[in-house]
Design a protein that fits this description.
Blueprint (H helix, E strand, L loop, with lengths): L53 H11 L6 H12 L6 H17 L11 H13 L3 H4 L23 E7 L4 H5 L2 E2 L7 E7 L4 H4 E3 L8 E8 L10 E11 L7 E3 L1 E7 L9 E5 L2 E2 L31 H10 L16 E5 L7 E5 L3 E4 L7 E2 L14 E7 L10 E6 L9 E3 L7 E5 L4 E4 L2 E3 L3 E11 L2 E2 L3 E9 L2
Parallel strand pairs: 14-23
Antiparallel strand pairs: 1-5, 2-3, 3-8, 4-7, 5-6, 6-12, 8-11, 9-10, 9-12, 13-15, 15-19, 16-18, 16-21, 17-20, 21-22, 21-23
Helix pairs in contact: 1-2, 1-4, 2-3, 3-4
């Protein structure tokens, strides 16, 4: 079922529009995540050993699909003729057909409830080996934190996105979002085309010219029921095959966290993605959050193959007992927190109203030819601590804006790293600290500064400095 999000959630001004995070100044940090991020992102290339093995694909397909004559088995068989002389564009397209069918039946009644993670992982890698190498070049090996070093196996246990989108005869592959299935809670991560369909969102310049299709996969990296103050829902990793690289393969997408109930979206939540905060999509018309799919988790082992004795012993009992389901929830009156990234990397949703500034020292007198600095022997730049209410550092990429108090006529300006003078200067949090390096006040006189978090319709409380004097020099 599909439900349009039509209720404004007071997340931002009604005039908010989609904006890519490339709008953020180049001074946004790119260093490793701060201390609140404790789960590392997988960065190893996908491991593919051997060549396309159609017989093994068919065997794994029969383990994974509920019916022996499922179309997945036919797709695997079709690859025999298409790969007779090596992988081709045609075999690549057929391999994506196989991955698409895997995604479509994952966690549904068409999937064998006794399917094994080993078979699922083998199927994914098997189809990828029947594709042209350019498809998997630099793609990232999944390493979920709650099942490390298991590759794609744990996708059968839920809390994963695993979808194929793009050019296809299946309309849902063109229009439907890529949703986390089996979240087990009443919020779920998703990705959508920023505008139009996935065909519009995908821009592929790979050589040779393969079909414009993509495998989107990812998983939770934190427990949504054990999040820190100021963080909504879980954190999530998103990846793709082919891998987005900003040149030969791009996707213009929106990422977001959907909520079943409107009252779950509190404060001023924004997506922090790859250490950058993203501007919200318009909450009145975008995005369209589909209901999370009903998900039947496999009861087989993610570590063993089809001859797992425990799995075989449970098979007979499963005929007489209902399979547990992750409840599907209707998306009426709910909400979403979204943004449009320029690449895919770790995503979090933070409530900016829970962030506080502290630790501002005394600003010393100075001149308009030197950066504003604290009154200490070494003249360090002005710095502040940025934390989340209840403890812990604010995430990297949190924007803090400095302005001059009482500067209504805009007489005094900041000279920001030699740029055109402006009434404000913005710096970004790194490891819980924001530092106003290379910021000068252009006008001589007595001044007082205000610092606050400002982003996408949100402006936090001001932290005021002492009064200090600037001379011409």
């Amino acid at each position: 079922m599909r439900s349009l999000l039509r209720t404004s959630l007071a997340l931002c001004a009604a005039s908010a529009v989609l904006a890519a995070c490339t709008d953020q100044p180049a001074s946004a940090p790119t260093a490793p995540d701060g201390p609140r991020v404790t789960l590392p992102r997988a960065a190893n290339p996908i491991v593919l050993t051997g060549v396309c093995d159609v017989n093994q694909l068919k065997a794994d397909a029969r383990v994974y699909a509920k019916k022996a004559n499922d179309v997945l088995v036919s797709i695997a068989g079709d690859l025999a003729a298409l790969t007779k002389n090596g992988t081709t564009v045609a075999s690549t397209n057929k391999a994506f057909d196989g991955l698409s069918r895997m995604a479509a039946i994952r966690g549904t009644t068409d999937m064998n409830p006794e399917a094994t993670g080993l078979a699922f992982d083998g199927l994914v890698r098997g189809f990828l080996k029947c594709s042209l190498p350019v498809v998997t070049a630099d793609a990232v090996e999944p390493n979920p934190p709650f099942a490390p070093n298991t590759g794609f196996k744990s996708a059968l246990k839920g809390k994963w996105v695993f979808e194929v989108r793009g050019q296809t005869s299946t309309s849902s592959d063109l229009t439907k979002g890529a949703y986390e299935r089996g979240s087990g809670v009443d919020n779920w991560w998703a990705a959508w085309p920023k505008t139009g369909t996935w065909a519009d969102a995908i821009e592929s310049n790979l050589t040779p010219a393969i079909p414009d299709r993509v495998l989107i996969y990812g998983y939770r990296t934190s427990d949504p029921n054990n999040t820190a103050t100021g963080q909504l829902g879980s954190s999530f990793e998103h990846f793709s095959v082919p891998k987005m690289n900003g040149t030969t393969f791009k996707m213009t997408t929106t990422l977001g966290l959907c909520f079943k109930l409107e009252n779950q979206v509190t404060g001023f939540p924004r997506v922090n993605h790859g250490k950058k905060f993203l501007t919200l999509a318009n909450p009145i018309t975008q995005p369209i959050c589909d209901d999370p799919a009903t998900f039947t988790p496999t009861t087989g082992s993610i570590a063993f193959g089809p001859m797992n004795p425990i799995m075989l012993a449970k098979r007979a009992a499963s005929f007489f007992s209902p399979q547990s389901l992750y409840a599907a929830t209707a998306f009426f009156g709910g909400g979403s927190v979204t943004g449009s990234p320029d690449d895919w990397s770790p995503s979090f949703v933070w409530d900016l109203s829970q962030f506080v500034l502290s630790g501002l020292g005394t600003i010393a007198d100075g001149t308009n030819s030197e950066q504003i600095h604290l009154a200490l022997p070494t003249n360090p730049p002005v710095t502040l601590n940025v934390n989340v209410t209840g403890g812990g550092a604010a995430p990297d990429g949190t924007p803090v804006v400095a302005s001059i108090v009482g500067n209504n006529s805009v007489i005094a300006f900041f000279s920001d790293s030699g740029a055109t003078p402006a009434p404000t200067a913005t710096r970004y949090v790194k490891d819980g600290v924001v530092s106003f390096v290379d910021v000068r006040v252009t006008k001589a006189g007595s001044h007082r500064l205000a610092f606050k978090i400002v982003f996408d319709g949100f402006a936090g409380p001001e932290t005021l400095s002492n009064t200090f004097n600037i001379q011409n020099k």
